[in-house]
Each structure stands twice: as structure tokens, then as C-alpha cells.
Amino acid sequence: MKLGAYVGGAVVLFAVAVLAARWLVGLDGVQDFLQRYPGHTPLPEATPVGLPAWLGWQHFLNAFFLLLIIRSGWLVRTQQRPPAHWTRNNKGLIKTKNPPKRISINLWLHLTLDALWVLNGLVFLVLIFATGHWARIVPTSWEIFPNAVSAGLQYLSLNWPLENGWVNYNSLQVLAYFVTVFIAAPLAVITGLRMSEAWPKKAAVNRFYPIEAARAVHFPTMVYFVAFIVAHVALVLATGARRNLSHMFAAQEDAGWLGFWIFLVSVAVMAAGWFLARPALLAPIASLMGRVSR
Questions:
Q1: pLDDT digits over 156-170, tens only?
Q2: Fewer Cβ in 10 A, N or C end of the chain?
Q3: What is the Cα–Cα distance from 124 to 196, expressed in whole angstroms?
Q4: Strands (E), 3-129
Q5: SS3 content of the chain, % helix, strand, coil (to 5)
Q6: Concatenated DSSP letters for 160-190?
Q7: What's the pLDDT band for 92 if we cut at 50, 70, 90?
Q8: Exposed (0-12), middle (13-18) or buried (19+): which is 235, by Cβ within 10 Å?
Q9: What is the pLDDT of residues 244-275, one digit of tens each?
């Protein structure tokens, strides 16, 4: 009952916001603002055009890891009795004086996926800066802010911005991608590392960066990622799904069907990963790195 009330309230608020936006964009002053700031800013001259194939793979891997990170993180936060535990092998390259601590298998999965996600993110950063694609997601002019307001009004009034994502993102997209890549992702990593039980209880870091502060930031950061994913997927599908999917998954400028079919396969792979990430199937993999126990 409460969920239905929340959904109904959200629908009403959205309808009111759309009506208010449509009224605003009809005002002469707002029309002048939209003409002066169309919703996007020019890119630097050397910025490459188009989306390379490696970006599509990066996009899929990022989505795949992030989906399972959110799932495993939620289980770590909510499950009172884990279905299994894992203890690291204290030998080889990683060997500590004190015996390793036993953690839940869900936390093991969360940390393993975190490592893969960070590695994928580092590869992404190297590639965008090496190829010049960084300029597509990093603000290069202060005019991006009024243009982001313009793009937001256009979205909210259901009069989608008319930029070509193959060439340039609108300013609201640029800010969203910049915040996600250069602020939210590092925050997730830094707070996640601080929440590790590997820190000694008397570590000096506790004085200026207590674990409670990390927890207070880590969970809202996860909520941000969930909100970003929902909004991102919704707008991709609502603002020209076939063209957008062709750009993102097939690295093609036209609105062909190849990107759509690759997208469906990627969704199937992510769904399979979601359902296969269970203790019975994770235990054999986790046992390669440590001891699995009840």
C-alpha cells in the first residue's frame, strides 16, 4: 500500500513539474534564454567525432560490474546471517602478520567486483585521455551551466534537446557524466576502502577519517548511482532508442538495428549474472582465493 502511494505521489509530482516546465518555456524571457543557451556548448577543435568500439565494451563492463556491485552491496548491508563465509589465503604475494579475518561471501563478491570495476575504470580513463574523448565529458566552458539549465527545461517540458550525441552531448549530460566519473566513482572507492575491516582499530586514520564518516557517504553514493542508471536508461530509450543504442553498442552513426540486438544480448548477460551470483555457484570460485565455510 505504501509503495503504491509513493508511486502515485511521484507520478503526480512529475505531471506538475512537466506542466510547470511547459508553462515556463512559453514565456518570452525564457524563450530568449533558450535561444541564447540552446543546451550544449562547442567542443574543443581537436575533439574526435563519433564513439569508438572500445567505448561500447567499456560501457557494458561498467554497467555489468556496477549492477552486481549494487546487488552485493545491498546484501552486505541487509543480510543478518550470510549464507557462507570466506577467509583469505595468507600466503603468496599477499601475506600479513595477523591472520586474515573471515568475511561473508557476499562481501567477498562485492570486493572482487569492486576491484574489476576499478580496473575497468582505470582503463577507461587512460583511453579517453589518450584519444581526446575526455573533452566530451569534461566541462570546458562556464557556459555549460546555463546550457545545462536549458537542457533540463527542454527535457522536463518533454521537448527533447536536439543535439547529436554522436558528435556532442548536451550540457546536462556532460555534467552528469563528469560527476559520475570524476566525483561519484572516486567517492565510492575512497569510502569503500575506508570501510574495510583490514584497518587496525588504533590506526591513525581513525582520528581524521572515522569509519562512520565513510559509511555516511558510501550509501548515498550508491543511491546516486542507482538514480543515475535509472535516469540514463530511461532517457536513452525515450529520446531515440534505436539511434542511441546504435551509437553506444555498435559504434555506428546511423539508427540501424545492430546496436539494439547487442543491447538485448548485454541485458541478457547482466540478468544471467544477477541470478547466477548465488553462494552455491560463487563458492567454487571463492575457494580459489581462500577458504569457504558456513
A1: 998 887 777 888 999
A2: N
A3: 25
A4: 85-88, 102-104
A5: 65, 5, 30
A6: -----TTT---HHHHHHHHHIIIIIHHHHHH
A7: low
A8: middle
A9: 999 999 999 888 899 999 999 999 999 999 99
